[in-house]
Amino acid sequence: MAIEREVVLTKRDVEARLVPSGTLITIPVDTFVTITQSLGGTFTVAVNGNLARVEGKDADALGKDTLKFNFDEVKEGEVNEHHVWEALRAVYDPEIPVNIVDLGLVYDMKISKRDDKNHVYVQMTLTAPGCGMGPVIAADVKSKVERVPNVDEVEVELTFDPPWNNDMLSDEAKLTLGML
């Protein structure tokens, strides 16, 4: 669920990453922040004239709930491909209100067995090679896919070949971004 510009008071000290540099900061308890985006369980906040991303595990610091997946049709020992795509669709760039799948950032996803473990491989890119949030977004992919039932290992590979461009956006993304 997206939130439009809600001002909240932090409930405790909370780590955040400045956008777009990715620099780690701590937002002190009792600081007013404005939530500008709340998608996929992460939060983009305006604080002291900067944008910062607060991870979903720290939702309580903003008085919010953590993202919960409701995966259906779980089969013992099997990874449901639909569930992996659902998890990937819960990952957002902190500056863009479109998930990474509809942005066209996911180039490949494979489920395989390795040493009796269910392994998920995700090859993805970023909208810009120098994006300081790249490692944060890749870590978000890993942590959300790890929550899929029966997933034992997740590997995320960042690539810039081919380079991302606007033609990779889904029609839904183009509509959301006012490009259709």
* Class inferred from helices and paired strands: alpha+beta
Overall geometry comes to globular
Ranges with pLDDT <50 over ≥5 residues?
A: none
- As for the CATH topology of the largest domain, it is GMP Synthetase, Chain A, domain 3
**Using DSSP, what is the number of strands?**
9
Strand order in the sheet with the most strands: 1-4-5-6-2-3
Rg to the nearest angstrom?
A: 17 Å
Tally of helical runs: 3
The CATH superfamily of the largest domain bears the name Fe-S cluster assembly (FSCA)
What's the overall average pLDDT, rounded? 94
CATH structural architecture of the largest domain: 2-Layer Sandwich
Tally of domains: 2
The level 1 CATH classification of the largest domain is Alpha Beta
Q: What fraction strand? A: 25-35%
Main sheet characteristics: 6 strands, antiparallel
